[in-house]
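Known limitations

Files may contain more than one protein. Parsers should not assume a single record per file. Below, a two-record file is shown to illustrate correct handling: read the sequence, read the token line, then continue until end of file.
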Amino acid sequence: MLNLARGLVSRGCAVDLLVRRLVEFGTRGVLRAVPSLAKYIRGAHPRAVISAMEHANLAALWAAQLARVAVPIILTVHVDLPACWARDPLRGVSRMLPWLLRRYYPRAHAIVAVSHGAGEALNRVVAVPHGRLHVIHNPIVTPELSRQASHPVPHPWLNTSEPPVFLGVGRLVPQKDFATLIRAFARLRRVVPAKLLILGEGPERVRLNTVIRDLHLEADVELGGFAPDPYAYMRRAAGVVLSSRYEGFGNVLVEAMACGTPVVSTDCPSGPSEILEGGRYGPLAPVGDDGRLADAMLSVLRHPIDSGELRARSAAFSVDLIADQYLSLIAGLQVQVP
């Protein structure tokens, strides 16, 4: 969303970025901010409101109705919702979420899914009115990315060409399934010398360290913590691996490709297969299958795709291109006062 805001600003748009932890709404939750958001809409009367994630999407719809201002509400969907709920069941009041989405999402003037898979999954939950569901991919490739990728890396593994280093990037949470990546690396390590570096923090750190110890990989696998500049790591890696159980898009794949680095991914719902065009730009492995994932990692070591071809593919997800698609969408929306 920040990349999108920058892209719109570069095209002469005035953009207000409303974030729960930054805007002083005086509330602890997104939904409790509805009255303040309605007041903002009445005062600013924006050309459009673009919201992200389910709770914020509902807040935007309710605030616009409360404000009674003719403003387009564009919801964005960033995950395969049925896959997400199947893996991480809703609890407590969140169990009302499917019902709330079915009731209120059809009132949006447009819904943008970040992948075709995420859009198809949403349609299994919500009866989106014809013509209101659009697919616009995430804006990933910024003008600064290549410059950031050239920065030095403070890690000894990446300052030498041997052995090759595979990189995982993401929060240490069950969704990312780094345990399968570690097991796949253990298989790979029996065939060729290699290292595995995982960047990110999260509640799975203790469990993942246990997996590393149980497989006796302490010398070859490291949980490197959060890195504010992952692109420099990506550019020097032999390959970047996305091992997720589910996604909405798969930003890390595009980021790595923009750095010219080979990628491997699980064929999870939704996004990776679209980004990689069914395996053309990087091999896909079944979710949770460490054997097939190890084979895919070995294949990019032995037969890496040309870096120029990867960078050319990543251009389809540039900030400039995606910002233009959002502007075209906004220009075509006709709105009446609720």
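...continuing to the second record:
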Amino acid sequence: MKTALSLLLAGMAFAQTAPKQEKSAFDKATLEAYLRNLELYLPSVQAKIDDAQPSKEMPGFFDVWVHWVAPNNATKDELVYVSKDGKTIFQGSVYQVNRNPFQPNLDKIHTDLQPSFGARGGPVSLVMFSDFECPMCKAEAAILRQNVEKSFPDKVRVYFIDNPLDSIHTWAHTAADAGRCVYKQNPQKFWDYFDWVYDQQENIGLDNFSSKLQQFATQKGIDGVALGHCVETKASEADVQREMAMGKALQINATPTLFINGRRLEGELPWQTLDTLIKMELDHQAQEAQAADKCCEAGPQKVVK
């Protein structure tokens, strides 16, 4: 009896003196609870936390992607940095003074397979992540189509990337598939489709999309049978998924989202604002080039007597 009592007392003493284990963000439950309290997410919002991966942007930290899903299927993806000991987390962007601040965005944007118009090889790249059912996207599309080539005929190239918001728009994804089908059949006709979809946006629904699409094909000289088959079989779905993956990597949660040489701009922007920002980017490039030239100029030779 004494031996058992001694062991019990010893165990109690150990429990009282053992150091308290500190919480770590590597415990996904702890990280989720912390972020819920920070962002005031309701219990109905579901979270999925990916495994930690060594961070390229922040040596000594890990990248942890957190995916939030609301009851209406609206989603938000965010990147959280976690220290190696799991005791420190932070959100935000990481910048290196000797590196282009927008390079991380540029590394995630791939435009080689995307519809585009404007100056080929122009010094300014304007990338539009958009949704065909989005009213603000319609307004921004008209602004770009009416002004870019007229104002910057040899300076700006515009690229379009699908980012349909499936949680709130019923036919945007189908329209994205159709757009890629048109692009595969005739890349130049894509911009006819682009203008047509936004012009007809208020008259299109999921119930009449196919018939409207056939009307468009007849008007623009596109093979309607091949186009319909492409949409029905989702032959272009892989392209749309690739585009949406780009948006996810860039943490795009709203449309339209524009990138001017990697600089993120969200929401509908008037042409006056875009015009100013493009000119500022061109001026910045000129200043960078001038600074580089001065750096490489040979100074006066010192005469040694």
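Parsers that stop after the first record will miss the second one. For reference, the second record is described as follows. The chain has two domains: 22-90, 103-285.
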